[in-house]
Every structure is written in C-alpha cells, then in structure tokens.
Amino acid sequence: MRLWLKDPLAILAEGAGRGIVVEGSRIVECVAAGREPSAPVDAVFDASRHVVLPGLVNTHHHFYQTLTRAHPDACDMPLFPWLKTLYPVWARLDPESFRLSVRLALVELLMSGCTTAADHHYVFPKGLEDAVDIEVEEARALGLRMTVSRGSMNLSEKDGGLPPDAVVQDADVILADCERVAAAYHDRAPGAMIRIAFSPCSPFSVTRQLMRETADLAERFDCRLHTHLAETEDEDRFCAQVYGCRPVELLEEVGWMSPRTWLAHGVHFSADDCTTLGRHGVGICHCPTSNAVLASGFCRTGALEAAGAPVGLGVDGSASNDSSNLMEGVRHALMINRLSHGAEAVSWRDCLRWATEGSARCLGRDDIGAIRAGLEADLALFTLDELRFSGAHHPIAALVHCGAHRADRVMVAGRWRVADGLPVGLDIAALREAHGKAARKFL
Q1: Which of 4, 207, 317, 318 is most exposed, with the fewest beta carbons within 10 Å of its own?
Q2: What three-state secondary structure class fits 76?
C-alpha cells in the first residue's frame, strides 16, 4: 500500500514540503512543495497538524534500571559510589521483573518519538541468563528496532574491579553466550529490526583479555562493539592504577580502535584523544542528562565531530536519568552543550542531528536516521497543540526549545506504532501497575 503523509506543518527533510510517500517499510518519495506524488496513492494521512521528524535513535540505555529510578540510597552520588550502592540491588533482578523493565523502557522511548534503541545489558545474576532473548521478544512485540548489546562483566571486587561477585560471569560463559545470541538474532540486512552488539561494560569491570576476545568475536560475526569510556575522572585514575594507561590508550591496546566501535559518554577525552578517535571513525554516544545528574562533566561534542567521530545521543540508564525520553534528551543536549561550548556553537539542528543521523552512524546503519527516498519509514510526528508551544514561530525549533516530550504518532518500518499519543494495542495502565509492583521489590 502507498500511503501519502500529506502537507505536514513542517518536516525535517529536503524537498518534502508536501510530505512523503511510504510503501511497505520504506519511504519511496519526497513530495516537493507545489507538487503531487508521481504515482497514485492508496491512502492519505492528513499531516497538517504535525511536525515530522526522522524517528529518533537512542544509542545507549540500560532498560533494567527503570526499576530503580530515584532510588533513595543513590539519589545524590557520583558514578562510582552510585554503582557500588546499586549493584547489590540489581543483583536481585529476575526474569519477570526484567521483562517488565524492558517493556516499560521501550514504551517510554516509543512514546517520545524513538524508533530505534540500543540497550546495554551487562548485569547477569543467576537466573537471568536469557536476558538478551527477553529483550528481543519485547522489541519484536512492540515493533521497535533494536541493537541489543550483550554486555559483560568479569572483573569483580575480589579481582580489583568495582562490581560484586553476584553480578559478574566467567569469560568463557560470556563469550559462549555472545556467540549464541549473535547466531540466533543478528540480522545484517538493510531494514533489519534486530541486531546484536558485544558490549563489555567498562574498564573497571572487565579484563583486558575479555576486551580482546570480544573484539575478535565482533569481527567474526560482523557485530558492533560498545562500552562505557572516559565517563569520570575516577575511571581515569582506575585505568592509570590498574592498567598503567589512560582509557583511550587501553582501547587501542585491546584492538577496539575501529569504526566498528561506539562509546558511551566520552566526557574526559583530551584533545589528542578526540583526534585519535576521529581518525579511526569511533562513534561517541553523548548522554547529557545522565552526565548532568551524576555530575560527570561535559562531552567535547564539537571537538569530536571536528575530528571526524560520529556523535549520537542516548538517554542512558533510567536510574541516572530517571527517564527514558529521548526527545527530552535532545533539549538537554542543547542546554548542556551551550553551557559548555557557547550559545552560537550549538543549535537545535545539531541536537536533532545527533539524535537521528549521528546515532544511526554510531550503530553502523545507513538505512535509518533521515527522511529520504529509499530509507526506512521510521518517523516521529509531533503536534504543537500544548500551551508550551503557543507563540512559537519555527515549528521544528519549537520542539527542542519549548520542550516537546511526547509524540502524537510514531511509525516504524511503515507501520503506526503510536497513534493519538498512545502505543497501539498496549494497556498503559496495566503496564504501569505491573511495573510499579515489580519495582517495589528493589527498595
């Protein structure tokens, strides 16, 4: 069926003033101002109330953390004490509560205009060995695209690392499960709904050897590589003490310096680090809200992009962000980057680009992240009906400056997944009740 999204109020695309035509899962035509579609259409959607964006792409999250938002034991801490406080809490994860945490995070993201999400799951207490399978099932049921990152930790407190023994696994177990989930779910084809990435957690929770062997495995399966890096000064000190080098030097040593890699945070990169990462095409996921909550610092987005590194956007975990709203994260990116770089250095266009094309590049995808003929029909449609938008003169800029946070319609692969602000076919009240009940176990 050919569907014409007709006469949008505004659209973030070139030559699409009269909208776009969708057929199957793809955009097949951008209709220029004053023109009609080049071929007959089967249906028309009146988009005259809507500002149309490419579907937002979230490149870093921890879905399970929706169960521990605003946790009273960890609200006012920097990263390392925060982690040490919450690791024992997360060790109580079980399949039922985890499934609800994933479902809630995906629904939140979807309602915020997000159509593709990357989740970094690295906590595998006994009984939760099938966490990746649960994430795939939930993403498929809701119709979101996902890069499911099979995370890992094998360096516990007894080995000089940060996490307790209850949440780490042996390297052999980790690598075997990476192979299993890649063989079962990793789809390299254009338009893929599910892809797998391999994601050792951080320098303070994995060994050098695991990092090396994971890189080899990613090469074999043609998967992406992901980890946290240079998030805090504590991490710099840890790497200097344990490995005798800085985080980026460690990355080079273990064979991760390639376009296959994207990193979360990147707050404490030096100028030389930015140059090195850009030269190798390593992507950076900027997490402005989490970095502000944990007072980690400012990502050098401008220097990274100038050096050639793709910059994307992520909400990060819902225990350090307390939200899974990527459109909200776009606004935070604008404010935080203006605070650190200056008002003229960063615009709303930059922040939306990070959340779409930049994030798609981080995930190694050239089939999403923009509105162009031939790309996947992943779209987020917002209205400007709320009081917060009254008086706004630039419809697209208004979404960022005035604080849009909920999409009216969301399309993924040519199918409506949100209509009238609600996910299609899902009982929000029932999900809230079940998830809230599960979360009470983690107090």
Answers
A1: 207
A2: coil
Number of neighbours of residue 85 by Cβ within 10 angstroms:
15
Give the separation between CA 228 and CA 285, rounded to whole angstroms. 9
Yes or no: say if 22 and 5 are a contact pair by the CB < 8 Å rule.
Answer: yes
Assign domain 56-362 to its CATH architecture: Alpha-Beta Barrel (3.20)
Distance CA 352, CA 400 (A): 8
Tokens describing residue 258: 């390639």
List pLDDT tens digits, range 247-294. 999 999 999 999 999 999 999 999 999 999 999 999 999 999 999 999
Strand locations in 212-309, DSSP E?
Answer: 224-229, 261-265, 283-286
Q: DSSP letter at 32?
A: -
Say what the pLDDT of residue 12 is. Answer: 98
CA separation (Å) from 191 to 32, 77, 360?
Answer: 25, 41, 12
Task: Tell me the two tokens of residue 141.
Answer: 């049921």
Burial of 227 from C-beta contacts in 10 A (0-12 / 13-18 / 19+)? buried
Q: What is the mean pLDDT of residues 432-436?
A: 98
Residues 2-54+368-423, CATH architecture: Roll (2.30)
Q: At what angle do helices 428-439 and 95-111 cross, to 10 degrees?
A: 130
Distance CA 120, CA 59 (A): 9
Query: Is the separation of the CB atoms in 58 and 317 below 8 Å?
Result: no
Bridge partners of residue 57, in order along the sequence = 116
Q: Are 235 and 202 in contact (CB under 8 A)?
A: yes
Q: Which of 313, 315, 312 is nearest to 293 (CA)?
A: 315
Average pLDDT over residues 161-190: 96
User: What are the residue ranges spanned by the domains of the chain?
Assistant: 2-54+368-423, 56-362
Torsion of CA 80, 86, 88, 93, to 10 degrees: -140
pLDDT, average across residues 410-425: 98
Q: Which residues contact 342 (CB under 8 A, 6 or more apart)?
A: none
What is the percent of the chain with per-residue pLDDT over 90, rounded to a whole number?
100
Cβ density class 350-359: b for 16+ within 10 Å, e for less: bbbbbbbbbb
Task: Give the predicted TM-score (pTM) of the model.
Answer: 0.98
